[in-house]
Amino acid sequence: MNLFPEEMRRDPYPLYDQMRSSSPVLHVAPLDLWMIFDHEGVKRALTDHEAFSSVVTPVTGKAPDWLIFSDPPRHTKLRAIVMRAFTARSVAALEPRVREVSRELLDQQIERGEMDLALDYAGLLPTIVIAEMLGIPLADRARFLRWSEAIVNLSYAISGGDEAERMMSEHAAAKDEMEAYLAEVLKARRRAPKDDLLTRLVEVEVDGERLTDDEILGFFQVLLAAGTETTTNLIDNAILCLIEWPEELARLRASPDVLPSAIEEVLRYRSPVQIAFREARRDVEVHGQVIPAGKLVVPVIGSANRDPQQFRDPDRFDIGRDPNPHVAFGQGVHFCLGAPLARLEARIALSDLLSRLRGLELASKEPWEPRKPLNMLGPARLPIRFEPGARSAAAG
Ligand code: HEM
Question: What is the distance in A from the centroid of ligand 1 to the CA of 334?
Answer without folding.
Answer: 8
